[in-house]
Amino acid sequence: MKAKLFSMLLGSFLFLVSATSQQVPVIEPLFIRVYNGQGVKISKGKLLAINEEGLVLQRGKKTDTIATADIACIKTKRALGHAIAIGAVFGSAAGVATGVFNISGTFEIQGQQKQLLKFKKAVLNGYY
Predict the structure, then answer these.
(1) Which residues are CB-neighbours of 32 under 8 A, at least 6 positions away?
(2) Residue ranges, the chain, pLDDT below 70
(3) Could you please report the per-residue DSSP string of 38-94?
(4) pTM
(5) Fewer CB within 10 Å: N-end or C-end of the chain?
(6) Which tens digits make up the pLDDT trace of 30-67?
(7) Closest C-alpha to 72, from 41, 99, 111, 104
């Protein structure tokens, strides 16, 4: 009887320790750049939300809503030129490593709600 009680208490203790030791990871908001049909950057900032109207971005303390109809393209990472500049400053190995692991993610939206939903799915699945 004592052994059964001890094993139940030990099991409960281990369960509580494992449940409280799990931490929810902090997710950094995705930084994106938004371009119109002429290839001009119309906005940039941290992605707060994707809804029926479009995107909600935050830049500093200011929030901006970009309508889906105004969005032609969304870029999620820096261009290859950034990696080359890093390589010039810190050495060629750093530039190559940065260039290999920092391939630009470009999503063509062309003002279509369906394409924006594909982008939302990619963001939720971590494919950016």
Answers:
(1) 44, 45, 46, 47, 55, 57, 74, 75, 76
(2) 1-27, 78-104, 128
(3) TS-EEEEEEEEEE-SSEEEEEETTEEEEEEGGG-SEEE-S--HHHHHHHHHHH-HHH
(4) 0.63
(5) N
(6) 899 999 999 999 999 999 999 888 999 999 999 999 99
(7) 111
